């Protein structure tokens, strides 16, 4: 394909690609960090141990972020928007990994990068100027349907991970365990449900800990032999202390 076949990408496509990349890569980094620290991190008291487990995952995630264009100059956002990074002198060539890496380091100062991109007549941001790259339309971009499905898939994966990880974190928390103990000892709940068989897949609500003080509100579905119940448990925690139940609110 001749060099003339490549045309510069519009600023709108570049900004849209950046937003998609930022969302997807941030989601990936957060997922890696959360998976590395585990679902019981909310009750972690050893800050040093917590940081030791989190830091390597955070560094690895950040390296992935700045390497997002490493495969043929195309990130997930650029693939969806049908654009790609190329050498400014020879648009048929993909810049080296090192140049792409350096180019993306400038994302740290993204507000300045947006201003430079908006003001630049050649549609370049600082990263492009330093790495000597351009962003062009991909003449071989896939059809709209697979690109739209990829964008939808990112959104679904984000929602699914957020729901499952948040639910698992709550279910593995000490606050949840204390709530369950109190529910099973509550004669009214046991009588109304005809005996507790099990609990819902994922509890909802919130657990907040600040300077050792904790407050939790957990909404737990109790599945009974005769009738189900939706129980809201309110708990508190003192520094270095255990979670204490304040109230159980039952709905049958």
Give a topology summary.
Layout: H1 11-37, H2 47-66, H3 76-81, E1 83-87, H4 97-105, H5 110-119, H6 126-131, E2 133-137, H7 144-171, H8 174-184, H9 187-193, E3 196-199, E4 204-210, E5 213-224, E6 229-237, E7 243-251
Describe the overall structure:
The structure is a single chain. This protein has 252 residues and is an alpha+beta fold. It folds into two domains: 164 residues, no CATH class; 79 residues, Nuclear Transport Factor 2, Chain: A. The protein contains nine helices and seven strands. Strands 3, 4, 5, 6 and 7 form a five-stranded antiparallel beta sheet that branches. A hairpin with a 4-residue loop joins strand 5 and strand 6. The longest helix has 28 residues. The chain is elongated. The protein starts with 10 loop residues before the first helix and ends with a strand.
Please describe the structure with a list of short key phrases separated by commas or semicolons.
252 residues, alpha+beta, Nuclear Transport Factor 2, Chain: A, 5-stranded antiparallel sheet, two-stranded antiparallel sheet, 9 helices, elongated
């Amino acid at each position: 394909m001749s060099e003339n076949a490549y045309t510069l990408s519009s600023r709108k496509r570049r900004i849209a690609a950046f937003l998609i990349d930022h969302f997807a890569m941030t989601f990936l980094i957060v997922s890696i960090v959360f998976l590395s620290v585990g679902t019981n991190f909310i009750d972690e008291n050893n800050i040093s141990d917590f940081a030791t487990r989190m830091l390597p995952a955070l560094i690895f995630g950040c390296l992935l972020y700045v390497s997002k264009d490493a495969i043929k100059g195309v990130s997930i956002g650029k693939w969806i928007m049908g654009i790609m990074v190329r050498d400014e002198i020879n648009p048929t060539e993909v810049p080296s990994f090192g140049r792409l890496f350096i180019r993306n380091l400038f994302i740290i100062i993204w507000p300045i990068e947006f201003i430079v991109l908006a003001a630049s007549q050649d549609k370049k941001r600082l990263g492009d100027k330093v790495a000597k790259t351009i962003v062009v339309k991909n003449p071989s971009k896939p059809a709209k349907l697979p690109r739209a499905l990829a964008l939808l898939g990112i959104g679904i994966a984000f929602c699914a991970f957020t729901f499952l990880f948040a639910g698992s974190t709550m279910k593995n928390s000490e606050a949840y365990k204390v709530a369950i103990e109190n529910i099973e000892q509550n004669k009214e709940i046991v009588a109304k449900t005809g005996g507790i068989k099990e609990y819902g897949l994922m509890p909802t609500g919130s657990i907040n800990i600040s300077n050792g003080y904790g407050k939790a509100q957990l909404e737990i579905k109790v599945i009974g032999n005769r009738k189900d119940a939706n129980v809201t448990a309110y708990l508190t925690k003192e520094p270095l202390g255990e979670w204490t139940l304040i109230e159980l609110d039952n709905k049958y």
